[in-house]
Every structure is written in C-alpha cells, then in structure tokens.
Design brief:
By secondary structure, this protein is mainly alpha-helical. It is built from 14 helices and 4 strands. The strands form 2 sheets. It has a two-stranded antiparallel ribbon. The chain has a two-stranded antiparallel ribbon with strand order 3-4.
C-alpha cells in the first residue's frame, strides 16, 4: 500500500528542470569535457533528490537516492516524484523513529491520506537487513552514479531552455577538482558567492579590528549561514564592518549589537534578536535584492538601493570586502 500525493506537490525533478541544469552546466563549464558535464549534472540531480527526502541520516539518504535512480530514473527513463520517494521510504524496513520522520515529511509535503494499491514494489527483492545492506551503499552508489552520469544525456531530451535554474541549484567551481558541492542558487556574481576561505587569516583580520564577531556563537553563525545561502562569508562580515565597525569589544553594548550586526529591520536597537536570526535575514535579503540586476550596475550598488538609506553604503561595503579579500589572500 502507498499514499497518494497531490499533483501540485508531486514533482521533485521534472524533465524541464533536468534540461535547465544541463544547459546551466554546459554554459558555466564550457571549458570542461562532455564527460565532466554529465558527471556534474548527475551529482546536481542527486543533490536535488536528497534535499527532498525526509531528514534521515546521510547513509539512509544515499541508499534511498540510490534506489530511486536504480528503480525509477534509469529503467523508467523519467524523473523522480514525491510519490516515488514516499513509496521507497514506506516500503523500507525503517525504525520507529525513521517512520515518524516519514510521517512528518508527508505532512510537510502535503500528502493526501488516501490508500491506493501499489502496482510496483521497489523493495520487494530486499532479503537482507538495512544494516547489512548499508555496508555496500557507498560502493553501490558510486557505481550507479558512473552509469547514471554516462547515460544521462541519452535518457533525457537534448532540448534545453536558456533560463537559469533559479529553482534548483548552483554548482561551486572550487569543488570541481574533488567532490562536487552543490549550493543554493542566487543571482549574485561569482565573486560574491560562497567559497571556502583561509579562516585563520579571516579571524586574524577580525581580531585586528577588535571584533567580538570572532567569538561564538557569532562567528560560526555567520560562516554557516554564508554557506547555506551561497554567499561569500567575507561579504557578510564586510556588511557588519560597514554597519557596526565589526562590533568592537570596546563598545559597552557590544553583546547586544552582536545580536544584529547587520542592522536588519532598521537597527540592532529596534530589532534585537539572535545572531542566527539576523544573519539569516541579512543573507536572504541579499539574495532577494540581487535579483534582476542590470549588467552595467555594480551588484552592491544594486543591493544598496533597498538595503540601506545611505547611498554611500555600497562604497563602504565594496571597500571593506576588497580590503579583507586582499588580506586573507595574502
């Protein structure tokens, strides 16, 4: 038995979405060979599927994704739907806790509680326990990904659209040499998108400004949020420099200011929250305000039009960003 999903909520990865990912990769990584394109696309698709799964531990997520590709994408030559995910999960030998996570996932995804007779069973051939099967997950997924990557272009239509995959993912160039990391898509130029930085030098710079933001929970909150939203961490710190001079320890109200060093919702005094909350709001604002920027306008100037009343805000942020980048790169 399975659960039937609403049509509006059923799509996880459409053919059009696959086409847009393929086109994006072909344009962004034109310098790479075709085989690498297929590899990057395949990895991106896997990440899209994994992000839609219930919040299971990584090994179980990989196993479910493996099964979905093996049972749906390759033999049936079609994308994965939420119903496919539900079917695989519901027929898996889950623990009670994992089944509770599945039920919560169904509620979040808008599952209609209507039992239907399933015409297929993805797990009927499983004769081993989950723990025994997990031993082969890593090797099995690696082998399957190789088949998937090689076969991908043949399975899906070559027609593509020229739209950026705004509802999908962006792919971090710095990870091409190793495991490919898929990050949230935004319209910030690549110079302002997330990249791993020399954190020891970043912390050294912040200490030179006597910044309380090198302390916890401030530092980790800003770094983690930067990665979550695919924003260069130095850009977020540069904004705190423009807004609050990096929150100097000498300020008697430093602990309060550090809760909202971005001055979201006007100021730290008007909106004194937590560093996690204010950083997420600032990051989301940057992503939203970066949309539809004309090519001839500086990205920070474009964001400035609504982020800050001071027309010179962008000049300060750009200057601090450049200074910090030069410092940590040296």
């Amino acid at each position: 038995m399975g659960l039937k999903l609403t049509m509006e909520q059923s799509s996880v990865l459409s053919l059009d979405s696959v086409d847009r990912i393929r086109f994006y990769v072909q344009q962004k990584y034109a310098h790479l060979p075709q085989e690498k394109h297929a590899e990057i696309v395949a990895d991106a698709i896997v990440k899209v599927i994994e992000r839609q799964l219930p919040p299971y531990h990584p090994e179980l997520k990989r196993h479910i994704t493996n099964t979905l590709i093996e049972q749906v994408v390759i033999p049936q030559k079609r994308p994965v739907s939420l119903q496919d995910i539900d079917m695989v999960c519901s027929e898996a030998p889950l623990t009670n806790g994992e089944r509770e996570l599945l039920q919560n996932w169904r509620v979040d995804k808008g599952v209609i509680v209507e039992t239907i007779t399933t015409q297929w069973s993805l797990w009927s051939s499983l004769t081993t326990s989950v723990n025994e099967h997990r031993k082969s997950v890593t090797y099995g997924l690696a082998s399957l990904m190789l088949i998937f990557a090689v076969s991908l272009y043949a399975y899906f239509s070559p027609s593509v659209t020229k739209d950026k995959p705004a509802d999908l993912v962006a792919i971090n160039e710095s990870s091409i040499a190793g495991p490919i990391e898929v990050l949230a898509y935004n319209e910030l130029p690549s110079d302002f998108q997330y990249i791993a930085v020399n954190e020891s030098l970043l912390i050294q710079y912040l200490n030179s400004r006597n910044s309380i933001l090198v302390d916890e929970p401030y530092y980790t909150a800003i770094m983690d949020t930067a990665k979550q939203f695919n924003i260069h961490p130095v850009l977020l710190f540069a904004i705190t420099g423009q807004e609050q001079a990096f929150v100097s320890r000498d300020n008697e109200r430093a602990a309060e200011i550090a809760n909202n060093p971005f001055n979201v919702f006007h100021s730290w005094e008007d909106y004194n929250t937590t560093i996690d909350d204010s950083t997420a709001i600032a990051a989301r604002t940057l992503v939203n305000l970066s949309k539809d920027r004309p090519q001839d306008i500086d990205p920070i100037v474009w964001i400035n039009r609504k982020y800050a009343e001071d027309p010179n805000w962008s000049t300060g942020v750009n200057s601090l960003f450049t200074t910090m980048i030069n410092y940590i790169n040296d």
